[in-house]
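Priority: medium. Attachment 1 of 2:
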C-alpha cells in the first residue's frame, strides 16, 4: 500500500482510543469548489493532549509530493524521500528551512518544533507543492474530494473546531463531543 493511500485511510492520528471517546464528522463546501482539496479540519487545543513524537513520510515521485498533505503534531518529524528519476529539493518559506538537493533513493528529515502550516516546495521543480500541517495535537482530518471529514477517538469535551485552506476561510465553530457519541459540523469556505 502506498504512503498516500495509507494516510487517506487514517483520518486522524490522535493516539490510543479510550472507551468513552467520540467522533466529529461533517462536511465542508468551498466556493469556488476547485479549492476544496487542500482543506483540513482540526481541533485547535485539546487539554492534556500528549503526543509521542512520530515520523511521517512524504515521497517525491513523478514530480509530485505524495501525499499532498501530512497532519502532524509539534515535535513530529517528516522524512522526505526521492523515488523519482531526477534530483529534488525541499524548502519551506514559512518554516525558513531548506534541506538542500539530493539524488534518487536518498532521504532527508525535518523536525517540526512549532505549530503552523508549512508549504513544501522543490526549488528545482516549482510546480511541486505539498503541505505539512502541524497542530498542538493530531485531532485533525484532510477533507475528502466530496467534502466529508471524520475525526475519530476525540476525548469527551467542548472544543473549538477550525478549518484551514490556503485560499479560502471560514469561522471556527464550537463543538461538544459526548462520550461514545458523534458530533456533526458543517463549514462553508469562501474568499
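Attachment 2 of 2:
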Amino acid at each position: 500500500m502506498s504512503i498516500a493511500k495509507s494516510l487517506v485511510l487514517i483520518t486522524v492520528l490522535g493516539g490510543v482510543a479510550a472507551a468513552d471517546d467520540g467522533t466529529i464528522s461533517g462536511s465542508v463546501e468551498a466556493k469556488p469548489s476547485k479549492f476544496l482539496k487542500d482543506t483540513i479540519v482540526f481541533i485547535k487545543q485539546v487539554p492534556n493532549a500528549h503526543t509521542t513524537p512520530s515520523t511521517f513520510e512524504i515521497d517525491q515521485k513523478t514530480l509530485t509530493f505524495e501525499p499532498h498533505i501530512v497532519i502532524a503534531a509539534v515535535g513530529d518529524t517528516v522524512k522526505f524521500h526521492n523515488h523519482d528519476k531526477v534530483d529534488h529539493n525541499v524548502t519551506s518559506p514559512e518554516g525558513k528551512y531548506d534541506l538542500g538537493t539530493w539524488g534518487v533513493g536518498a532521504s532527508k528529515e525535518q523536525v517540526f518544533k512549532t505549530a503552523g502550516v508549512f508549504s513544501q516546495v522543490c526549488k528545482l521543480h516549482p510546480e511541486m507543492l505539498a503541505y505539512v500541517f502541524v497542530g498542538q495535537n493530531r485531532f485533525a482530518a484532510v477533507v475528502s474530494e466530496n467534502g466529508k471529514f471524520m475525526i475519530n477517538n476525540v476525548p469527551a469535551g467542548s472544543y473549538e473546531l477550525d478549518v484551514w485552506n490556503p485560499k479560502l476561510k471560514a469561522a471556527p465553530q464550537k463543538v461538544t463531543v459526548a462520550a461514545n457519541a458523534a458530533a456533526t459540523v458543517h463549514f462553508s469556505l469562501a474568499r
